[in-house]
UniProtKB/TrEMBL annotation:
Its cofactor is Fe(2+). Gene3D superfamilies: Alpha-ketoglutarate-dependent dioxygenase AlkB-like. PANTHER family: ALKYLATED DNA REPAIR PROTEIN ALKB-RELATED (PTHR16557), NUCLEIC ACID DIOXYGENASE ALKBH1 (PTHR16557:SF2). This is DNA oxidative demethylase AlkB. Its EC number is 1.14.11.33. Residues 114-214 form the Fe2OG dioxygenase domain.
Amino acid sequence: MIQPDLDLFGPAPQQLAAHTVLLPGFAVAQTEPLLDALRPVLRAAPWRHMLTPGGRSMAVALSNCGALGWVSDERGYRYSALDPQSGAPWPALPPVLLALASAAAAQAGFEGFVPDACLINHYLPGTGLSLHQDRDEQDFSQPIVSISLGLPAVFLFGGLQRSDRPQRIALNHGDILVWGGEDRLRFHGVMPVKPGVHPRLGERRINLTLRKAG
Ligand code: SIN
Ligand code: FE2
């Protein structure tokens, strides 16, 4: 007899806050199609270290795909339709990524999420991301969908004030975290990634955050 509580589809979603849901392993089955789709994206728009408004080089390397891409330089943070490095539009959002993000958002309670931007972050061991809010998007009614690949990380999920003590959330290869609604402007960051070698991606963590930016 099949036990009614036997979980055939992996770990259950975890509600971390009113409008924040961790979907453990949600992307695992799509990892290879995702990586295949990212290869041409990163050929067209290679990893680069952008400057902060203060003129420092960011520790994470990044790229973008979608109609809009997040960029940073001495003039500030913003979304741009063009890759400043090539002057060309960013590569299109791969359909597999769009479908996965919409499915994850729906699973987390945000039906009809259609992102137009995907920020792709690359972390080497020792690299983290300091606490910040995602507030460069036009429409805060739409959630952020974050897909983690490669080495594990500790995600810091704070409150609406920078001084609020953050929760620590383990993000593993294939996990998707969705935050929106009243949690949309929570401060968040990533602890420096611990040294390690991921069996598929080696010494790196890749994070994809999908947004409705325009
Ligand atoms: C971000 O906040 O843009 C990235 C989050 C992450 O790497 O998990
Ligand atoms: Fe962020």
